[in-house]
Design goal:
This protein is mostly helical. It has a domain at about 30-245. Helices cover about 75% and strands about 5% of the residues. It has 15 helices and 4 strands. Strand 2 (about 150) and strand 3 form a beta hairpin.
C-alpha cells in the first residue's frame, strides 16, 4: 500500500514537472527565475554529493562550473561541435580540471576547502590571461543557442527548463545509485571513521577522488548548460564566488544529506529572494535571505526536507 502511494506521488510529480509547469508558465519571467534556481540546484546537488558521500567541504565548485562552461562554448564556437555533445564534453573537461586537485585530497576539513578555493582563483586567472582562446576579460559573445530537437526549440525558456530538469533528474538518479551501492556504503563508513576503513583495506583516497570526479562532471555540465542558455561568458562571471555561496546555502537550507533537498532548497531560497525579499528591500535583500537561513539552521539543523518528512510522518502515524 505504501509503495503504491509513493509510486502515485512520483507519477503526479512527474506530470507536474514535465507537463503542468511548462504549459502553465511558458516563456514567462517566472520561468526564467525557475531555470536560474535549478542551475543553482544542480551545483548544490553536486556539492552535496561531494560533501555527504565524499566527506569533503568544497569552496571551489566555481572552478568546475567555469571550466565546463568554457570548454563547451569553445567547442561549439571554434570546433563546430553540437551543443548537446559539447555540454557533456564540458563535464569531462571539468573532470580533467579536477585532476589538478588530486594532491589536496589528503587534506581534511577547512584545509581542503581553502585549497580547492585556490584552484578556482587560478582557473579564473588563466581564463583571463589566455585571451587568444577565451577572449580574456572581454569574454565570449554569441555562444550558440540550444538546438531544436524533434520540433522543440530548446533555446526557449520552456525548452531550456526541460533540459535543466532532465539533467537534474539524471544526476539525482546517479546520486541515489551511488548511495545505494557498495561504494556508497564504503563512503559512509569512511566518513564515520576514515582510519578504521583504511585498516580494513578501503582505499579512501581513491573513493574521495571518484566522488570529486562525479561532482566535477555534474557541475561542469551545469556550467555548460548555463553558457548556452545566456549565450555569453567572461571569467569574472564564470568563476564567480556566487556559484559557490548560493549552492551551499541552498544545500544546507534544503538538507544536504538528502538527495532532493539541495534542489528544493535552491528553488525556495532563490524564488523567495527574487519574488518576495527583493520587493521589500531592493538593495541588500540578501540580508533577509541570510536571516532565513539562520532561522532554518536553528529550527531544523538538518534542513527543510528532513523537517517536512518528519512532519508528514507524524501526521500519518496512528495516534
Amino acid at each position: 500500500m505504501l509503495m503504491t502511494r509513493k509510486s502515485g506521488l512520483w507519477a503526479v510529480l512527474f506530470v507536474v514537472v514535465y507537463g503542468v509547469i511548462p504549459w502553465l508558465l511558458g516563456d514567462s519571467y517566472v520561468m526564467s527565475l525557475i531555470i536560474a534556481a535549478l542551475i543553482i540546484g544542480g551545483i548544490a546537488l553536486a556539492w552535496a554529493l561531494l560533501s555527504n558521500l565524499g566527506g569533503m567541504l568544497s569552496f571551489g565548485h566555481s572552478a568546475f562550473f567555469g571550466v565546463g562552461a568554457y570548454v563547451s562554448a569553445l567547442l561549439t564556437m571554434k570546433a563546430g561541435v553540437g551543443v548537446l555533445p559539447a555540454m557533456l564534453i564540458g563535464g569531462v573537461g571539468a573532470v580533467v580540471a579536477s585532476f589538478a586537485m588530486l594532491p589536496v585530497l589528503r587534506l581534511r576539513g577547512v584545509y581542503f576547502a581553502l585549497a580547492i578555493l585556490a584552484y578556482s582563483i587560478i582557473f579564473r586567472v588563466v581564463a583571463t590571461q589566455w585571451e587568444s582562446m577565451t577572449g580574456g576579460s572581454a569574454g565570449l559573445a554569441s555562444i550558440p543557442h540550444m538546438p531544436v530537437v524533434m520540433g522543440m526549440d530548446l533555446s526557449s525558456r520552456s525548452g531550456s527548463y526541460l533540459v535543466i530538469v532532465t539533467l537534474l533528474v539524471v544526476f539525482a538518479v546517479v546520486y541515489r545509485l551511488i548511495w545505494a551501492s557498495h561504494y556508497g556504503m564504503a563512503l559512509r563508513a569512511m566518513n564515520g571513521s576514515e582510519d578504521a576503513t583504511r585498516v580494513v583495506g578501503v582505499n579512501s583516497v581513491l573513493l574521495k577522488a571518484s566522488m570529486l570526479f562525479v561532482s566535477a562532471f555534474m557541475t561542469g555540465v551545469i556550467g555548460a548548460f548555463n553558457a548556452h542558455y545566456i549565450n555569453f561568458l567572461e571569467p569574472d562571471y564564470a568563476f564567480n564566488g556566487t556559484w559557490v555561496i548560493l549552492p551551499v546555502v541552498a544545500a544546507i537550507f534544503g538538507g544536504y544529506r538528502t538527495i532532493i533537498g539541495p534542489i528544493v532548497g535552491a528553488l525556495v531560497v532563490y524564488l523567495v529572494d527574487q519574488l518576495i525579499f527583493k520587493d521589500f528591500i531592493p538593495v541588500g535583500h540578501q540580508l533577509l535571505l541570510g536571516a532565513l537561513l539562520v532561522a532554518m539552521i536553528i529550527g531544523s539543523p538538518r534542513g527543510l526536507m528532513p523537517l517536512l518528512e518528519h512532519r508528514l510522518r507524524a501526521r500519518t502515524l496512528p495516534r
